[in-house]
Amino acid sequence: MANAHVAAIGTVAGRSGRKRQRRSLLPYGLILPTAVLLLVLMVVPVVIVIANSLFTQVVTRSGGRFAGVANYAAVLTDPGFWPATLNTAIFAGASVAVHLVMGLGFALLLNSPLIGRVTTAIFRTILILPWLFTAAVIAVLWRLILAPTGVVNYALENLGIIQEAIQWFGDPATALFAVTLMNIWSGYPFFMISLLAGLQGIPADLHEAARVDGANAWQRFWNVTIPQLMPIIVSMAVLDLLWTTQQFALIWLTTGGGPLGVTEMLSTFTYKLAFADYNLVQASASAVLVLLFSLVVAVFYVRQQRKAS
Questions:
Q1: What pLDDT does 29 receive?
Q2: 154: which of 2, 49, 123, 239 lies 20 to 30 Å off by Cα?
Q3: Could you read off the pLDDT of 141-189 as tens digits, one per residue?
Q4: Domain boundaries, the chain
């Protein structure tokens, strides 16, 4: 009888132990599909690209000679690399700065109590439209807008600002400005939506206390609104910098890096190395260099997020 009782207790204990084990393994089982997907789609391709950048030819069964940093040296001494880096810096810096100003301006407009609900809803719908279009649609739209017979040239000619139509995407003097303007238009809603959410989360008591202390509208904006939005501003700026430096579709679909390389970005430079010159190992090295820059920015972003939390 005693042995049966002990056996029963052992059986119950075994079942409870298995249940606890299953419960402890459940979270890992839930994240396993995502982990496998990330491994296959992200980690493995990155490892392959890094491996290719260290050999004289693409790593296959036949293999290739180990090149060390020779491919990186070739990329860094390529006459097109540093101009592409400068163009990318100008393109990304201008885009992020104007995204921030436009996004904050439109967010303040939509958060203003002076605008009714219906008007706010209409403006929100109109202002978010650029973010809903695909890169192909945006490229086609802006090629039509900035065409020699497009609306921009028509308006400038009628205002007497220009005497003849400008080839916005075809003139080396205006091409970088044109693609930057296009990227600004397509990306500012990201800032607008994020900053609008931040504005709506600022306690009204802070503004009321500043008003009681005699602060005017500008002082309340600079000393209350901006400090409250600063974590969002920094996070959005870092993310936008990462995305903009890797912008490829808009550039490729409008100028292809031309004319005369004035809109050549690191993304198009790397693409041409791989699929125009068929130099896949140097293209891999260029991609790794871009990855290293992105990692530096990503580390800064993670540290900023930890401080904010």
A1: 79
A2: 123
A3: 999 999 999 899 999 999 888 888 999 999 999 999 999 999 999 999 9
A4: 1-52, 71-308
Mean pLDDT over the full length of the chain: 86
Alpha-carbon distance of 67 to 56, in angstroms, equals 6
Q: Which tokens go with 5?
A: 């009782």
Q: What is the pTM of this model?
A: 0.85
Neighbours of 58 (CB within 10 A): 15
**Dist CA 84 CA 260 (whole Å):** 11
For residue 227, the tally of other CB atoms under 10 A from its CB is: 11
Measured between alpha carbons, how far is residue 105 from residues 112, 218, 223, 239, 279 in Å?
A: 11, 14, 17, 19, 45
1 three-class SS: coil
Q: How far apart are alpha carbons 254 and 9 in whole angstroms?
A: 75
Q: Whose CA is closest to 200, among 124, 271, 135, 307? A: 124
What is the distance between the alpha carbons of residues 259 and 263, in angstroms, rounded to a whole number? 7
Identify how many contiguous H helices and E strands the chain contains and give both numbers. Answer: 14, 0
287, 49 Cβ separation under 8 angstroms: yes
- For 166, phi then psi, to 5°, come to -100, 135
Q: Residue type for 126, please? A: I
Write phi, then psi, for 66 (nearest 5 degrees). -70, 125
Contact 231, 239 (CB under 8 A): no
CA distances from 106 to 74, 202, 243, 250, 264 (A): 45, 17, 21, 24, 31
Site of tokens 């080839």: 167
Token duo for residue 294: 């992105």
CB 187 within 8 A of CB 240: yes
Structure tokens at 273: 């190395």
**How many whole angstroms from its chain centre is CA 95?**
11
Residue among 270, 246, 295 at smallest CA distance from 81: 270
Structure tokens at 27: 């979270």
DSSP 222: I
